[in-house]
């Protein structure tokens, strides 16, 4: 049986979210450890990857998710952020290289959360406790899969070492 560090069933399940209007955290490959995350606001998606960063229209990301049947959860946050702020923060990063500089790093900075938060599940627990999560929606994810699997910070290092090799 899978063990999860965070289950999305704790917060409201939304039938849909607005990719153009809502501030969203995109959790890709929820079936993998660690998953990959990005953030979008006002229709623009940002993500820090091992080979650089994305700044693309959410419509392109949605197309890719649908085309590749990627297991995705979108978390709607009840926070407003401008594209300019998110872009400014992401521009201070070049690529994901370690657990200390991963896809999570610019998102923590954008959301102004403690830097000591090491993993996605810890960020979600923090945001949930601060009542910043409005709800979630999913694509290609069953209710049983709707969570962040348990993993260690060393798993982030291993994944980024593999991607950067």
Overview of the molecule:
- This protein is 30% helix and 27% strand.
- By secondary structure, the chain is an alpha+beta fold.
- It has one domain.
- The strands form two sheets. The chain has a six-stranded antiparallel β-sheet, sandwiched between helices.
- The longest helix has 12 residues, at 153-164.
- The chain is globular.
Can you give the mean pLDDT? 92
Number of helices: 5
**What is the CA-CA span between the terminal residues?**
32 Å
Strand content: 25-35%
Number of domains: 1
SSE class: alpha+beta
Q: Order of strands side by side in the largest beta sheet?
A: 5-4-3-2-6-7
Low-pLDDT segments = none
Strand count, sense and barrel status of the largest sheet are:
6 strands, antiparallel
Percent range for helical residues? Answer: 25-40%
The string of secondary-structure elements, in order, is EEEEEHEHHHEEH
Radius of gyration using CA atoms only: 15 Å
Q: What is the 3D shape?
A: globular
Work out the number of β strands.
8
